[in-house]
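Q: I'm writing up a methods section and want to include an example of the input and output format. Could you take the sequence below and give the corresponding predicted structure tokens, formatted cleanly so I can copy it straight into the document?
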Amino acid sequence: MYYFFTQNQIYIVATIVLICLIGIFLYLFNLDKKISKLEKK
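A: Here is the clean output for your methods example:
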């Protein structure tokens, strides 16, 4: 298992970063929908 992490560290880091970015985009998208709902009122 340790060997896997040392050999594929860049892929693991890239995957974590990608997941974080997707999470931020989804959060901003939901926030934008909520704000536009409030603006319509």
